[in-house]
Amino acid sequence: MATKKKIEQPSKKPLTADPDAWPPSRKHTGPAAPWTEGDEVNALALKTAGSATMITVRDPKSLENAIAFLGDIADAKKKVEAVRVILVKPLNDHVKRINEMFAPAKKNLDEADSALRSKVLTYRAAEQRKADEERAKLLADARKAQKGGDDDKAADLATEAMSVAAPARLMVAGVGNDGGHTAQVATRSPWTFKVTDAGKVPDEFWTLDESKLRASVRAGTRKIPGVSIFQEETLVVGGR
């Protein structure tokens, strides 16, 4: 039976994320900078995990030992997370400030882009409607001429209707407002969808909301058709 070993703790010196406070050998840049505190908690985690994996649970004594090691693991997790936060928080705060700095510019450009795209697509939709209406009118006139016995006119109108072109796919290369950059714009027509009657959508396209089920069970629901609700034992471990 494995015995519980005392886990060495990292040094109590103050944690710091200030590169100026690192020893000369530690003054590296980039995400892989080997900070001393990170080395220490990684060593602690490795030792704790290595000792814990040697434990077998087969009697009350070994169970007690395993539970004690679970406490060690919980403590090590807290230490790892504490050092991680200390080191990463200044970087995250800096990234947040940068994102906040550029957010207004991005928002303004996104809104301008969306508005101008909408104008272009609205214009093209109007052109498409005009072409459809012109084609439909010519075909109606052709049918009317055919009924009146004027087959030649009917044929000419039908031919003209077929020649009415829909707006071509847009492929434009234009000079930008700065006079130096070229803007290239093209259109495409991917297939998409819009649900018009949810009640008629086949079951294969529906996804079970497991989050909602889980929340309902946790709230006390014990009977749901088609669902087996049961208790499953887990461990809740707190550090010291």
Overview of this structure, please?
This protein has 240 residues and is mainly alpha-helical. The chain has a domain at 33-169. It contains four helices and two strands, in the order αααββα. Strands 1-2 form a two-stranded antiparallel sheet. A hairpin with a 6-residue loop joins strand 1 (171-175) and strand 2. Helix 1 (36-53) packs across helix 2 (60-147) and helix 2 (60-147) packs antiparallel against helix 3 (151-163). The longest helix is centred in the middle third of the chain and has 88 residues, at 60-147. It starts with 35 loop residues before the first helix and ends in a 22-residue tail after the last helix. Mean pLDDT is 80; it is low at 7-34.
Summarize the structure.
It is built from four helices and two strands. By secondary structure, it is mainly α.
Task: Summarize the amount of helix as a percent range.
Answer: 40-55%
Q: On the 0-100 scale, what is the average pLDDT?
A: 80
The SSE string, one letter per element, is HHHEEH
Q: How many distinct beta strands?
A: 2
How far the N terminus sits from the C terminus, by CA atoms, comes to 24 Å
Multimer state: single chain
Basic shape: elongated
Query: Which stretches are low in confidence, meaning pLDDT under 50 for 5 or more residues running?
Result: 7-34
Major sheet summary line:
2 strands, antiparallel
Q: Give the helix tally.
A: 4
How are the strands of the largest sheet arranged? 1-2
Strand content: under 5%
Instruction: Calculate Rg over CA atoms.
Output: 35 Å
Could you say which structural class the secondary elements and strand pairing correspond to? mainly alpha
